[in-house]
Design goal:
The chain is built from 5 helices and 20 strands. By secondary structure, it is of the alpha+beta class. The protein has one domain: Double-stranded beta-helix (4-Layer Sandwich), CATH 3.60.130.10. The strands form 5 sheets. Strands 1, 2, 3, 4, 5, 9, 17 and 19 form an 8-stranded mixed β-sheet that branches. The chain has a 4-stranded antiparallel β-sheet with strand order 8-18-10-16. A 3-stranded antiparallel β-sheet has the order 12-11-15. 41% of the residues are buried. The protein binds fe (ii) ion. Fe (ii) ion (FE2) binds next to loops.
Length: 278
C-alpha cells in the first residue's frame, strides 16, 4: 500500500490517500500515519465506509479510546465511546449531542483534568451548505503571539469551562455545577516538543493569579491570534469523510447551517495524559 500525503492548507491539515480505515493497517503504514498526523495536526481520509465497530478501531494507531465525559443522564447515545453529532430529531428530541448551528473555537475536553489527546469525526449525512468545521493550528497561534504576550502567558494557568453551550462566554458564577479545569496556557507537545497556545474563545474563562477583569482583557487580546485566518483550514464535509485531529495543538469551530438540513457525524476520542506546561 502506498500512502500519499497532500496538504489541505498552508498551515494545518493533510489529506491521506491510499488507506482504507475499515481494514487492518500494517505497522509501517501506522508509523507513516502517525508521522503525518504529528506533522500536520489534522488528517483527512475521504470516501471511507465504516461500521461502528470499524470506527471504534479506526485510530488504534494513535492510542486507546477515551470515554465520553458527558454524564449518561445528559446524553442520548448509549455507546460510551461514540457521540452522534447531529441535528436529527426523533419525537422532537435530538438523537445525539451538539445538534444545531454555529459553535465557537475550542479545544475538545479542555474542561477536564486529563483531556483526550485526539478526536475523530466521521460524516454520514451533511447539509448542502454550512456546518463546515474550521481548524486552527495552535503551534502557529503561539508563534504569532507578540513576545510581550508570550512572556505574560509563560507559566500561567488558564481555567477552561464548559456547560454544553455552543456560542457563549464561559461564566464563572456557578462553577460548582459546571465542568472546569486548570491547564497551562502554553503547552508543550509531548511528541513534537513544540509549544502550542491552549486558550480558546468558547472555554477559556480566566487566568490564575490575575484579577478576573484583567484576565478577560488578556483573553480578548489573545483571541485574534488564536483565530488568525492564516492559521485556519475550513473543512467542507462530504459523506464518508474521516478526520482525526490533535487536541493538544489545535482548536476547531463549526459554521452555521440551515435547520431544515440533516447533519449526522459520529465522533470518538483517544485517551490523553495530563498536559505539560511549556
Ligand atoms: Fe469539539
Amino acid at each position: 500500500m502506498s500512502v500519499e500525503i497532500i496538504p489541505l492548507s498552508p498551515s494545518i491539515g493533510a489529506e491521506i490517500r491510499g488507506v482504507d480505515l475499515s481494514k487492518p493497517i500494517s505497522s509501517n503504514v501506522q508509523q507513516e500515519l502517525l508521522k503525518a498526523w504529528h506533522d500536520n495536526v489534522l488528517i483527512l481520509f475521504r470516501n471511507q465506509s465504516l461500521s461502528d465497530k470499524e470506527l471504534l478501531s479506526s485510530s488504534d494507531w494513535i492510542g486507546p479510546l477515551g470515554a465520553r465525559s458527558r454524564p449518561a443522564d445528559r446524553r442520548q447515545e448509549p455507546d460510551p465511546y461514540i457521540m452522534l453529532v447531529s441535528n436529527i430529531r426523533k419525537d422532537g428530541k435530538p438523537i445525539g449531542s451538539l445538534p444545531d448551528g454555529e459553535m465557537w473555537f475550542h479545544h475538545d475536553m479542555a474542561f477536564v483534568d486529563v483531556p483526550h489527546k485526539a478526536t475523530f469525526l466521521y460524516s454520514v449525512e451533511v447539509p448542502k451548505t454550512g456546518g463546515n468545521t474550521k481548524f486552527a493550528n495552535m503551534y502557529a497561534a503561539y508563534d504569532l503571539l507578540p513576545d510581550r504576550l508570550k512572556k505574560v502567558l509563560e507559566g500561567k494557568r488558564v481555567m477552561q469551562i464548559f456547560d454544553y453551550k455552543e456560542t457563549s462566554q464561559p461564566d464563572l458564577s456557578e462553577l460548582e455545577n459546571v465542568k472546569h479545569a486548570w491547564h497551562p496556557a502554553i503547552v508543550q507537545h509531548p511528541e513534537t516538543g513544540r509549544k502550542a497556545l491552549y486558550v480558546n474563545r468558547l472555554m477559556s474563562a480566566t487566568f490564575e493569579d490575575l484579577p478576573h477583569d484583567e484576565a478577560k482583557v488578556l483573553i480578548a487580546e489573545i483571541i485574534p491570534y488564536a483565530e488568525d485566518p492564516s492559521i485556519i483550514y475550513e473543512h467542507i464535509w462530504q459523506p464518508g469523510d474521516f478526520l482525526v485531529w490533535d487536541n493538544r495543538c489545535s482548536t476547531h469551530a463549526r459554521t452555521d447551517f440551515p435547520e431544515t438540513e440533516r447533519r449526522l457525524l459520529k465522533r470518538g476520542m483517544i485517551e490523553g495524559a495530563p498536559l505539560i506546561a511549556a
